[in-house]
Design goal:
three-stranded mixed sheet, two-stranded antiparallel sheet, 16 helices
Amino acid sequence: MDCCNGIGRRNFLLLVAGSLLGLMTPDRAYSFLSIISEADENEIGKKADLEILGRFGRYRDQQLQAYVESIGQRLVSEIGPTSFRYSFKIIDIPDVNAMALPGGYIYITRGMLAMLNSEAQLAGVLGHEIGHVTSRHAAKQLTKAFGAQILSLGLMAASPGGRENTGEWARVSAALFEHVLLGYGREAEMEADELGLRTAYRAGYDPKEMVAFLSAMKMKERLEALGYHGFQGTHPETIDRVVKAETMASILTGQGGGGLEVKTNEYKAHLDGLVYGAKQDRRRLKIHVAKDGDTPATVARDVLGDQQLAWEVANLNGVKEATTFRAGDRIKLLPRVSGGPDEERQLTLTPN
């Protein structure tokens, strides 16, 4: 029997969805309802993926790309059955950021990779983005933004026969990119933090490393008034995230099991030669292998030629200036470039 009385399935869904959304507050509509199917999320994500890569560019390091993809897929194997085909791509911008599109398209910037200091931290960040996908935060946000229109507007724009509907897609794309870049709101970000910690833990990574990363981002936020999308606009205060992550990490590690991985040296080994900062600055990370007893001060003096760079060495590697490295430890360094921005910032004093 035709339950829709001849008005057509899509029109019937539009009427029902419109009625439901009209009865719900915006927050409740966001929290509990998405009228976009997972198949449609795949189509929207597929099209937006082309825009992300066209807008930012893909970082051309196949070995590093394969490494990030392998960590991402290790995490995906722990989330259970999914209709999404996940992919993990490095985009070529210096911003410290990571993003997720509907359908499992996940991105991390080279700036974020330079900021992280262990494979476990990378797993925590990718796990956070996977959490956005599994919780369907983008679909819920689009539903909130467009209401029942999204059933026709989004699908028309994303469908193969709708390529001429550039105006419709522009509206969907603009809303999607706003939340991809700035975040999905306090509730969603806190949920993704928790899911990311749980997923990384199930994959065998130490969740305390995500706490260390969030603490480092808090420091960066104070020093530069900048941060990846988890620390901007609609996101919860960083200190709230650190406290909640500490609590969750303690609960998870308290469950026992042992053998949790951090993989600091393995991670840093993949970063040698990574472009750092703006491309015109011509700076790249160098991975130095420590001698037993090395400190940030001795490395700054002996390798970089300036002991005053000890704080930079410590900060870049997420350690204290008083840290003593062990033989074989990998240390991220930023060698100076002749004529680069650091030389330009130095003051030249001349006698009167």
